[in-house]
Specification:
Layout (H helix, E strand, L loop, with lengths): L2 E4 L5 E4 L3 H18 L1 H11 L5 H4 L1 H24 L1 H25 L2 H28 L6 H28 L2 H8 L4 H12 L3 H20 L7 H8 L14 H22 L1 H7 L4 H4 L2 H19 L6 H21 L2 H15 L2 H10 L6 H10 L3 H16 L5 H7 L4 H15 L10
Antiparallel strand pairs: 1-2
Length: about 450
């Protein structure tokens, strides 16, 4: 029989052993698998759909991540109506529908249809993330929230590594020779070859869709508790500092939204552009297809460090400061070097980015009480940074290519990461602090 317990931050939650954490861990695994396969889909769809530029191929990330901005607030509304558990199940079913769209998209070799499928998957993920991130953040003491989210991050990045390896083998194992052979094929032979390439994703996405439906059923039948953050809001409202009428009155939350926007942007750039970047500087695609896994590997290392060090040896605020400064250093080193050395520093950004989400999210929602669901939705909207910054990188790279060779242009475009990391550092040092003066909002 489940027992109700009050956690240190006064949120009443039903205890049910490890099952809530296990289920949330499984959901984060799904997030990682679905999200990080985009790094492989970008060069794959550029070939299969005969796209003319890298920037156009980055619309893969744009269509996927922009769904978070469009759907996050509706997700918050839906969660208030259904509760966390039913909302997460609906999100999983939605993702299954998006995965099935890949079947007609592959048959028609329609890039727009692929983008539609990605948008639907992103819509489901927006709902899932809006619900699951507060779970990971508040199922325990605030001081160790970054540690719990780091554990979820390991599930996420391990899944991303598997996704890249599996889809890289399926879709890009012979990409270099395939592109070379296309140049000498007749029109009919070229169409047949491209159709075969496009069809490679059909079976994997059918499997993904079935697994999503099964997980949705598991979530519905699980003992996963609903978090009653409204009760916490009522308790906090007794404090004059928390007598707020709008979520927009919390300055640290608004800065957190912008910080998360920039962080997701640089994280997606490091993971999703690195394959195309490797190809641009002359590295064969058969080798470059593994570069996203290198980035994720460094992120995984960072999460392990976070679990061991936070909060025992270092606070989540200090960890965020260190990560932001290292992001600046690794970006500068990537731009100032060439070849595999430059690739190494882009991959090392995975280490810098690893502890940012685990630190930013709990710092941004701290002390929000009944506004937690809406605040979570705003933070999920900030994931749109992954839609906009990679596209901005591609646009800058193409503009620079008018004056420089493609390799130099692709390298120099990474300078846009530096101000992003500097703002993240500001949030870690000062921006996350809750203001006591009501007029400061």
């Amino acid at each position: 029989m489940e027992k109700s317990a009050v956690l240190p931050d006064n949120i009443p939650v039903k205890r049910s052993g490890l099952s809530p954490i296990v289920i949330i861990g499984a959901l984060f695994f799904i997030f990682g698998f679905i999200t990080w396969v985009n790094g492989t889909l970008i060069p794959y769809l550029k070939i299969a759909c005969e796209l003319t530029s890298d920037t156009e191929s980055y619309l893969v990330a744009t269509s996927f991540f922009i769904a978070y901005t469009v759907m996050a607030l509706p997700s918050s509304w839906l969660l208030k109506r259904t509760g966390y558990k039913k909302g997460m199940a609906i999100g999983l079913f939605t993702m299954a529908v998006g995965a099935m769209v890949f079947i007609p998209a592959a048959e028609a070799r329609s890039f727009n249809m692929f983008l539609a499928g990605l948008f639907i998957i992103g819509t489901g993920l927006a709902l899932l993330q809006t619900a699951s991130n507060p779970y990971a953040a508040i199922l325990g003491p605030h001081e160790s929230a970054a540690r719990r989210i780091s554990i979820m991050g390991i599930c996420n990045k391990v899944a991303g590594i598997f996704a890249g390896l599996i889809f890289g083998y399926i879709a890009l194992k012979d990409a270099d020779s395939f592109e070379h052979n296309l140049l000498s094929m007749s029109a009919d032979a070229k169409e047949a070859a491209l159709d075969e390439l496009a069809s490679r994703v059909v079976v994997p996405y059918i499997i993904i869709s079935v697994m999503l439906v099964i997980l949705a059923i598991v979530v519905l039948r699980s003992s996963l508790p609903d978090i009653n953050d409204d009760d916490r809001g009522e308790q906090e409202s007794a404090d004059p500092l928390h007598r707020k009428t709008s979520v927009f009155q919390f300055r640290h939350l608004l800065l957190g939204v912008l910080t998360l926007f920039l962080y997701v942007g640089v994280e997606v750039m490091a993971g999703d552009t690195i394959i195309s970047y490797g190809k641009a500087i002359g590295i064969p695609l058969s080798t470059a297809r593994f570069f996203t896994q290198a980035t994720l590997g460094f992120m995984l290392l960072g999460y392990i460090i976070g679990i061991a060090a936070i909060p025992k040896f270092i606070s989540q605020e200090k960890a965020l400061q260190i990560c932001a400064i290292s992001g600046v250093i690794f970006t500068v080193m990537a731009v100032l070097n060439t070849g595999y050395v430059s690739i190494l520093f882009i991959a090392l950004l995975g280490l810098s980015n690893s502890l940012m989400w685990p630190a930013i999210f709990p710092l941004a929602i701290k002390g929000l009480g009944r506004f937690t669901k809406t605040a979570s939705a705003l933070l999920i909207m900030a994931i749109a940074g992954g839609a906009i910054l990679p596209l901005l990188y591609g646009g800058i790279s193409e503009r620079l290519a008018l004056s420089f060779d493609k390799a130099t242009a692709s390298t120099q475009a990474y300078w846009i990461m530096v101000p992003c990391y500097l703002f993240i550092w500001y949030f870690a040092v000062k921006g996350h602090k809750i203001k006591s003066d009501k007029h400061s909002y």
